[in-house]
Queue: 2 jobs
Job 1
Amino acid sequence: MSETATRLSAFAGLTLPAVRNRLSVTVAPDAIRYSLRGSPAAAAALGAVFGPVPSTTACRATSAGDRAALWLGPDEWYLLAPDGDAAALAASLSAAIDEPHALVDISHRNVGLILKGPRAADVLNGACPLDLSETAFPVGMSTRTLYAKAEIILWRTGLDTFRVEFWRSFAGYIVGLIAENAREHAV
Amino acid sequence: MLLVTCPYCGPRPEIEFRQAGEAHIARPAITCSDDEWADFLYMRDNHKGYMRERWRHVAGCGRFFNVVRHTVTDKFVASYKVGEEKPAIPAEAAAGPRVEIVR
Amino acid sequence: MSRFRTEAGGRVKRDKVLSFTFDGVAYQGLTGDTLASALLANGVHLVGRSFKYHRPRGIVTAGPEDQNALITLRRDAARETPNLRATQVELYQGLEAESQNRWPSLKFDVNAINGLASSLFVSGFYYKTFMWPRSFWKNVYEPRIRAAAGLGKAPAKADPDRYTSRYVHCDVLVIGAGPAGLTAALAAKEAGATVILADEGAEFGGSLLGDAVTTIEGKSTDAWMSDVVMNLAMSDKVRMLARTTAFGYFADNFVALVERVTDHLAAPSDALPRERLWQVRAKQVILATGALERPLVFPENDRPGIMMAEAGRSFLNRYGVKVGLRAVVFTATDSAYRAAIDLKQAGVDIQLIADLRARPPADVVDEALACGLTVRAASTLCGTQGGLRVSAAEVGEVNGDLTIGRKEVVDCDVVLMSGGWTPNINLHSQSRGRLIYNETTQNFLPGAPGYDNVSIGACKGTYDLSATMNEGYAAGEAAARASGRKGGMKKGFSSLGGLAMGGGHLGVVPHDRDPGRVKAFVDFQHDVTAKDIKLATREGFQSIEHVKRFTTTGMATDQGKTSNMNALAIAAKAIGKAIPEVGLTTFRLPYTPTTFGNFAGTARGDLFDPIRKTPMHDWAAAQGAPFENVALWKRAWYFPKAGEDMHAAVNRECKTVRTTVGMFDASTLGKIEVVGPDAAEFMNRMYVNPWTKLEIGRCRYGIMCRDDGFVYDDGVVGRMAADRFHVTTTTGGAPRVMNLMEDYLQTEFTDLKVFLTSTTEQWAVIAVQGPKAREVLAPLVEGIDIGKDAMPHMSVREGRICGVPTRLFRISFTGELGFEVNVPADYGQGVLDAIWREVREAGGCAYGTEAMHVLRAEKGYIIVGQDTDGTLTPDEAGVGWAVGKAKADFLGKRGLMRPDLTGPSRKQLIGLLTVDPKRVPDEGAQLVASAAPAKGSHALGHVTSAYWSENLGRSIAMAQLENGRARLGETVYITSLTGAAFPAVVADPIFYDKAGARIDV
Ligand SMILES: [Zn+2]
């Protein structure tokens, strides 16, 4: 039997930008990511087992411990859990839901970056068209949006901290664009 | 850039959306006539004034929804979900003189 | 210091001397100077040549509305920026500027001969003269006109600077930071609003910056301004943007601002962008864009040294520069008197004030007389003298019947003119606001706004300083309240001094010169004279929009800022209509010229578009593979060995796959997980195929049509569970297929319980194809029996490979025994490494997209979008067998019943075998009936795919051909770009292993 294949991150070979005291960019650790699609009732049933109950309020994330459920659409949530046995977790979650639903493993489809620092919102606004003020985009808000020509999921996890999730093939583009937009903040 | 109101997410920038053509075009039954089918496939209204259109919040919640938009001024006067009752089309404001004169 | 620089005063820093050059001549200026003020301080007025006649041109204004002082700034070979306004260019140490539109030198310009021949160069001249003969246009006229015309030269090298962009939101955006804008921003801030205050200038203050006598609330303007600016700057709710032009006003209060970040710096930091584009969404916009002084249209009003009166005052008070030593003031307004007084007090000899008005206001005249000035009412200028600089003005009395009485030639080195003030309604107009015409002041003013904005101060026609500030404060408070803030405060401002701005004149002034010959300019940059506008109306142009295009008045950089009102008045008079009936031209963006870099922003080079890479991209690059762009993806094209060209590599790869085994990165194929109790029914409706009976663990080749019945996409679909399908799509088609599925699911098939998730990037896909494919995979796979019977062709199994989960498909796009290994993307490279070891051991190779294309064409497998083009039905594309005819409905079923989709004129996909087997047709080549078809013969079809097949030792091609399947065995001719059409025989498109024996092993 051959040896087990190792993981290779989509960020391998990419240099993450940083601006001292103003912005840090780190890769979110490997995680279980699931796309949940179904009715709010299905989401509520899942919540009972998963931990955080998926929000029925638009553009809001719920989290409990190291698990989170991000509202992406009225029948779509993005589930995050620490890395582990994705198939086992899915089986336990699905078993709790009677309603028709889809639970699809996208742990490798998406990757994440964490932008932290007083300039994080400004650097995001270099290519994201949303109002990222604390009132318009408070902590706990999550939505799909754009970073220039790439689709992203944006989740504000703290006053100066954002988690950005996107399809892995866009890693080079998004890291390059963040670096370009961060550059002027060094002055 | 227009501000488009998604019935699910609220007002969001135009670039998150994609226009998806005239709204309320019903797909006819397979037994329809060739003319009815051609109408469904190809014939669309495109007048100056308020139009009901489909838009999709593609880089947002992903939902298709309907709007009432003025094709000249670009003003949106209503957004509503698929299946919801059509809101009324407002009356066209009278087109006054382009330049008003005062002394 | 030069005799044109005052001893003291102004906002320049007299102890900070800067050196600069203009056309290679070294000069000195001061920190705080613009290039214009520094040149004037050196006595230089001549800065450019005009567009058409190449007439000498001087500095006319002190602001961004100047259309004469266009220069090129040079930092290095790649950083040459043409068409900058010298009045807006801030001086820095070592600045190098050059004049434009002149050859060989500014003072002696060969093309100025155009001016001598100007009776030929009337408006519309280009349209009329160069129409015949036609061949002359391309070879004679156009190159010469192109060489002579144009403003400045485009840089030859790529722009090395960076440009960034920022989306920003605020409650209140205030555009313009003069007295109106400052008080509006102050009020909005005090009412709790988030505020952006933008101004084109280097400093905030607007008209107050050139004002030495006014006091506000008992303070000097300087003291008052710095208090307010400090107050605003201290607030974290206010963003202050200097050197920032609002150039575009878009729907829903989306306003584009460009901030010039480094242009004023001698040695900018490498980290800074040259310009920053602010894309502002404001709840409320306050337009405080001021008013622009108009020139007077009099004979020879374009000589260098003739400038706006308020510009003369601004150069004096703000920059400490006397624009001349001996001035004639020619005015129709009150404000020029203030300029005359200020200049006289600075020691400039004011020869006289010629006021066009018969009865100028007594208080204004009395103040001038008290200062020892000479005022002549009912006076005009009938002409000027001088070559490269004005040397005298011909002052004439205007009689009651508008004839000219006594005349006098007055020596001067500068003429300060003032034809009145035009409220700057450009942005209001861009925002689709309505207009009001005030017949008394002869001004267009902002009417009802198009979006949530308000105009205040001079741009609304409010000229009194106290009134302007009170209007500003009230507007700021109201805007804050309208954007949801508290508001409610009130404040009144008092000021002393200020500028009286009454009076004005539109159109040509009275003079005694021959109106058919004289040059009285309306648009200095384009050399448009009053005569040209009259000619346009005589030629039948009645609409001002047509007059503008025929004469070019107010086009390009001016955008009507200084020329519009005079042009309009002249046209209205010639047509015999009132000004508002003729109408104002529409203001368009950009307000001032804007760089391409600003629009491009960061979207250049590798960041122009996303470059999508597969998980195994770096491995392919390390193997030396060149890449092919497919949608946004980079795909490995072929894997050349040392010494191989593309042809040799592809031939080897094709041979190897058919004899041993090949490995291919298929990760880019679109994948959609279709899940739900109604998944099979959804697939039945979306695809032409039947799905209900597809067994779990089996695959089917799916064809998707749209409702029109034409092929839209294709791909293999595996059934993972009763309620779960693994759907694949073409690489480029993935987003649109997903969009179409969501569309039908959300709006048409709402009865179905089905959910879609894109899994394109969840899976890395490694295709292993060839007789030894099973042998390669066998040692790596766990928990799946991949034997011939246990896992037949078109099946899918879940298990493990190299210790990680896999969805293993037995499918083939080559016609050989084949598998496609799907593994979670991060494992793609690791699994590929293991497979690659086995492939090499088996004598196989890696192959790229080119070999993939050849191999599939040998088998007659279509590529949607290459062999189909949105006009072929499944049957015409040769895949009619896939259509589930018994199904009640599916996308395309009704469409395929259309009568126009039958008959002999329809095209079908067929194979072509060239009679000369070595000849490979061009893809896209037309098919015709004979070697030399008659001119006008219609094409029978076209080649869609064509390759050299090393396996077959000949060329193969696929083509769309009219009634093609009925023509098997017939000869058609393929057109060529390089010679005559050549023959080919129509054939079945399956060229290799027609029986399919190789796949079923
Ligand atoms: Zn939405």
Note: The CA atoms of residues 670 and 729 of chain C lie 5 Å apart.
Job 2
Amino acid sequence: MAGIDPKFGEALKNYGAINFNACYNCGTCTAVCSLSTPENSFPREMIRLSVLGMEEELTSSLKPWLCYYCGECTTYCPQTANPGELMMSLRRWLTSKYDWTGLSGLLYKSLPLTIVAFLLVAIGVISFAASQAFNSETIMHYGHYFEMIAIGAVFAFILFPNIIRMWYFVMVRSGKKLSLTTYVKTSGELFIHMFTQKRSLGCDDNQFRWFEHFILVIGYLMLLFTTVFLDWFGSQNLFVILLGYVESALIFIITVDFVKSRIQKNREVSKNSQPSDWFFVIWLLLMGLTALLVRSFIGLGIIENNLWMYLIHLTVLAQWALIIVPFGKWTHFLYRSFAMYFEALLAKAN
Amino acid sequence: MKKKIGVYICHCGGNISDYVDVEKVKKSIEDEGGVYLAKTTMFACSDSNQKDMVDDIKGNELNGIVVASCSPKLHLTTFRNVSERADLNKYNYVHANIREQDSWAHSDDKNGATEKAILLVKAAIAKARLAEPLIPNKIQAQKAVAVIGGGIAGMKAAIALSDKDCPVYLIEKAPFVGGRVAQWGNMFTSNQTGEELITKLYHELIKRKNITLFTGAEVTHNAGSIGDFRLKVSVQPRYFTGTCEEKQLQQAIDACPVEVLDEFNFNLTKRKAIYRNAASEYPQTATIDMENCTRCGKCEAICDKIDLSQKEEILDLHVGSVLMATGFDPYTPAEGEYGYNEVDNVLTLPQFVRMLELSDKKLIRNGKEIKNIAYIYCVGSRQEEDGNTYCSRYCCTSAIHTSVEVKKKFPGVYNYHFNRGIRTYGKQELLYAESLQLGDIYLQGDEESLPEVSGESGKTMVKVKDILSAGRLIEVEADLVVLVTGMVPRADNSVGSMFKLPKGRDKFFNEIHMKLRPVETFIDGVTIAGACQGPKNIMESVNSALAAATKSYSYVSKGELETEPIVAEVDAELCSWCDACTAACPFDAISMTNESSKAIALINNSVCKGCGMCLPVCPTDALNLIAYSNNEIESMIDALAAG
Ligand SMILES: Cc1cc2nc3c(=O)[nH]c(=O)nc-3n(C[C@H](O)[C@H](O)[C@H](O)COP(=O)(O)OP(=O)(O)OC[C@H]3O[C@@H](n4cnc5c(N)ncnc54)[C@H](O)[C@@H]3O)c2cc1C
Ligand code: SF4
Ligand code: SF4
């Protein structure tokens, strides 16, 4: 017997859900959704569960991750209940549910708190630079290490435990038993989806956006690799240098396009931007841009006299790595990939 | 006089001629006795053909016509008018239905259909040969209308009739006018209160000199028929000769030893046998409920304006038409139906509406503040076969409207609607949208999985398999369960039986035709309005009241009425008044009369519908149905059998 909670809907509004109460369950959204299947039907069911406030069922549901927000449902909903944005809000809400620290939820719900967090990180970076007497060599040296350490720590202490929680909510609560070999054999799904996001191609009229996303993900991951492991800023290898330029330029160009469409609101997905969405695209943009500039300054040999450029880059990087990656929208990319993986596992269990 | 008959056989586009060889039909009947001319036509009802018919009739001095086409339900009047335009008595036109009764029914057998058409037309010709010109009956119509029931429908009808300069008697059984509407507070969809509406209408009523209002009044007897109804009305006294001083009245009420449940509040509260009107009840004076009064005289001793010796009055009214607007009763759930009368925080929607009116700062039931309210829809409506299978129409909207009112008046309340599909048609949909926005929760069951109410260990639980979330069993703890009860016909149907008003499948008064004659009944001269005809909200009740007022007025406006001459007639020689026919007549049109000191049957021409039910039961064959005489029918049978 399921209990219901009319207060849940109010709470979900803090995660950006709008007007979903208007839903009268006609099912148009599910009918027009090109990713919904008879076995995995959404978004109407998700709206229904949200209206009823069936938290437990929502926590173990993967459906919010199966949606790539083409926005067809929102376009056709006769009640302007905005099912697409509801799915998006559920993703934000789920992220906060998975996050053991509870910080995701706090940051989503409060813009002032988010700004404070960004400021604190910036102050941290500047104080660190001051403690090193603004010596560019040591700062850049530690900066390089910081990237590696931050990535490792965020994964080990935040993201990994959160994935385990997600696994618990979804897989353990489902009551389905799966052998370790099945987990291993199916793991291919995880990486395919992580790198290609190929499922989003199923969204109608989504080919170009998928392509942009694909290039962005590849560019981002490669830039990470190029800076952390190939030491782009220090390398003398022409190929590495050029590679880095191309990657950061790509990130910059694509994120500019994303920002533009959020400003113009020309797609369903970009009509209702939450602060977390803005931070995500803008910081990605800034990362591409500042990395490009820093590397050019290094190339031109003017970085020592213009350390501020590197400090800006480091601040952006630190904010990205300490706030957006563990608690912000970046996690969607991770959870979505795991969702596909778990989905494939559950399908095997049936 | 020898008949000169014109026969017109219609193609009906192809509806008839695709299956019936109309040319062959024409050839086959051309030589029938009396046929002067025979034609086929693409559309008999077309203007051009109508004109040709008029020319034919006039030019050839035809004295009978036969039209073979679609059902007479569609075009009987059309061709009667053609006859009249050609100065031919309209009863000399005979119709043969060769579409519904032939071409459509036998589309698989063209030869058979053609043969049948020939016979049907021949039979019609046989009847036309014997048809006689007839003159419609004329009867006097008393220019006055009795409106029975002073609810919102009756009040609006009375005002509309009065505005047409027609005297009206408005007869209300209760001591006050206003009906159910007086019981409701803020209402959908205009957000006015019942009090506001009734106050407005009452002042309109009493302003009009040609409306006579009787409260506490009931029709006890009816004789006569359309144009000439003779009613006996019993009027109960109020037992007041004037208005008591406020303080004295209160003392009198306090002194009254009789306490009964107050029906105005659907038994939520009690009142004395002497009681005040509610603010929405008119006329605004106290009254005494004689059914419960013990005549102890205590009140009389306090206020000298109270007079227990007043007697009922019997009045005779003479009217040309009766407009019935007796309204509805809210459905009373059976014992234990969704916990009714078993679980103590279960009540009906009408009760809840009153409870809201009576509640002030907090909504409290049994000393506990109400936070969670469960509404169970369709109680007493949309039941299984044998029950009330109909939808009561008003209740979805009313429940939603009430729940929105609750939320506005008592913030912090949560509403749970256990419905079976919301039917807030038209503009009422906006209320549903508003309620969704307020965060109300809608759970939907169906006839296979109705909600269940249980009250154990001080908790009232309502559960249902919600078909909108894949049949999940969902349970809600409710502080109050509101049964959204439908409308049923008035339990007391004595006035309906008195007028022999037919009832429909749903047991409400029935109209002749839902779409084309929506306020007329089979009892000529009696119209119906408001919720006595079936579940209606106020707008619909008032719409039908205005329509019924116009229809009733049309019966009496000219002072004279024409009725069909096709009625039964009695052969005084043959009739021996065995009384068999009175029982056979469904319309009470036959009574006994004395003609040259012999008892014989008398047909009331304005009541007889020409149905012919009395003919076969007459042992001496003394009855004849005009235009369907034995001769005519036999000649038709002969024509049909000859084939
Ligand atoms: C809980 C509830 C809430 C509602 N809320 C709304 C709302 O918000 N908005 C809306 O549009 N509609 C509402 N309705 C519907 C509305 O009440 C009806 O549409 C309206 O009452 C119908 O009016 P009526 O005159 O046909 O019948 P009634 O109101 O029933 O009046 C009939 C009158 O006839 C009298 N009578 C009966 N028998 C006799 C007799 N034999 N002789 C003489 N008099 C007789 C009765 O005493 C009564 O005064 C509601 C209904 C309910 C049950
Ligand atoms: S299309 Fe709109 S109203 Fe219909 S089910 Fe989806 S969200 Fe609800
Ligand atoms: S109006 Fe609504 S509550 Fe009333 S019977 Fe119809 S469906 Fe049921």
Note: DSSP finds 16 helices and one strand in chain A.
